[in-house]
Amino acid sequence: MTTAHRPTWAPAIGGEEQGGMRIFKPSVALSAKNLPGHTKLKFRQDGQSSADEVRARDLRAELEEKERKHFAEKKGSTSAFEEERQRDLKLLEAAPPDGQTRQLVPKAIDADDEDPESSESSSDDDDDDDEEALLLAELERIKKERAEEAAKKAREEAEVAAKAKEEELRSGNPLLAIAGDVSFNIKRRWDDDVVFKNQARGEPKAQKRFINDTIRNDFHKRFLQRYIR
After folding, report:
1. What parts of the chain have a pLDDT lower than 50?
2. Would you say the pTM of this structure is higher than 0.70?
């Protein structure tokens, strides 16, 4: 529902001269838009993830529990995850050798990582590397052949275009034309030997004239000739 038909606050209160010399008391009412609002700050209540609740939560334990549930649903067992987790914790807790600094990067299994038990052996990795090298070599050979074919095709197209341009220049200029190849005779039109051609060329054309008389002008005479006589 629109309020375009209702007067705004400023013209509604009127002016001092309203009503002539009428004595009136100025209005002490305030507009709803001038009233104070939002005078209190809102804080998170209990159950709305307040600062104390977040501080008291063990986010790491919650994350590990979610990962445990994920692997349980995916493979039906959490033993692999637990073994990997215990191994990482032992590596982190182990003391570094004398004179060396600890540089350990824990490798916790992720939801997108594969199961360590299903990893391939080193020989399989070597075979994969060899196959990848062969595939890359084959790809480079195919790219090279395609580049050579494209260059050859471009050269052939350029030669054909140059020959066509040269032939066009030679046939277009009669001075460069070879004797016997170009004839200087005028070509006949297809209707040169037609019997009935330009029959009205020699007939006299009726000249138009202006006569300022509706009875003696040419139009009136043609009208009488066609429809009356």
Report:
1. 104, 111
2. no
